[in-house]
Amino acid sequence: MKIALIGYGKMGHEIENVAIARGHEVVITIDKDNINDFTSENLAKADVAIEFSTPVTAFQNIMNCLKAGVPVVVGTTGWLDKLDEVKKVLSKSNSAMFYASNYSVGVNLYFRVTKILSNYINKVKGYTPSIVEIHHTQKLDAPSGTAITLAQIVSESIDEIKGWTLLPDKDSTKISIEAKREGDVPGIHSITFDSEQDEIILTHRAKSRKGFAVGAVMAAEFIVDKKGYFTMDDLLTIK
């Protein structure tokens, strides 16, 4: 499989290492220093693109890939206000897009466990949920896409919760998210269900970026020759 890497920072380099180890070839890398190379002609050299850039550039990067007819795996968060627009374009194209707020297989199992626990909490009542996420200081968006996904899972499962808010803002009807930026932390997410008598804490702690890179390359392998919109639920067949 021939891969175009869009965004060649720490994650891009990790993805390149994983891709090569799995027998693939990176035929082009695009970053801020060579943005003029980001053309349909160069994209056509690849079977699939993997996009880990910035919230500001992600939307246009995706549009460029779809225009070129190259399926794209997107790992950038913080741009989802334009997801519906992307899906409309995607529905009229012959290409594919794979999106996940987090490509770690462990995180996606963590989402599943959170869903199950939230359903039980909704039945027994009496627990207040909250989320804390910690990432490296170079992460540009806050809260993280993973924290937002966790909040959406809880909001969809617990009747009293209607969305999320980022601290210091507070709203008793919404789940609060605290975002911390520290050192070179790959990612820590904790969700707490607190009651008068006890608390339940679920935590996922990434040890390195490799787990995210492996998931992204697996997603690229999955969508080659496919059409449409896909997520980790499709890859892992979690329903």
SSE arrangement:
Layout: E1 2-6, H1 10-21, E2 25-30, H2 40-43, E3 48-51, H3 58-68, E4 72-74, H4 83-91, E5 96-99, H5 105-124, E6 128-135, H6 145-157, E7 164-166, E8 175-181, E9 188-194, E10 199-205, H7 210-223, E11 228-230, H8 232-236
Helix pairs in contact: 1-7, 3-4, 5-6
CATH superfamily of the largest domain, called what?
Answer: NAD(P)-binding Rossmann-like Domain
By secondary-structure content and strand pairing, the structural class works out as alpha/beta
Based on the coordinates given, report the CATH architecture of the largest domain.
Answer: 3-Layer(aba) Sandwich
Our count of helices gives 8
Would you state the CATH class of the largest domain?
Alpha Beta
What integer value in Å does the Rg equal?
A: 18 Å
β-strand percent reads: 15-25%
Sum up the structure in keywords:
5-stranded mixed sheet; 6-stranded parallel sheet; 239 residues; Dihydrodipicolinate Reductase, domain 2; 2 domains; Rossmann fold; elongated
Model description:
The chain is α/β, with parallel strands linked by helices. The protein folds into 2 domains: 2-103 and 210-236, Rossmann fold (3-Layer(aba) Sandwich), CATH 3.40.50; 105-205, Dihydrodipicolinate Reductase, domain 2, CATH 3.30.360.10. The protein is 37% helix and 24% strand. It contains 8 helices and 11 strands. The protein has helices at residues 10-21, 40-43, 58-68, 83-91, 105-124, 145-157, 210-223, 232-236, and strands at residues 2-6, 25-30, 48-51, 72-74, 96-99, 128-135, 164-166, 175-181, 188-194, 199-205, 228-230. The strands form 2 sheets. The chain has a 6-stranded parallel sheet with strand order 2-1-3-4-5-11, sandwiched between helices. Strands 7-8-6-9-10 form a 5-stranded mixed sheet. A hairpin with a 4-residue loop joins strand 9 (188-194) and strand 10 (199-205). It is elongated and about 60 Å long.
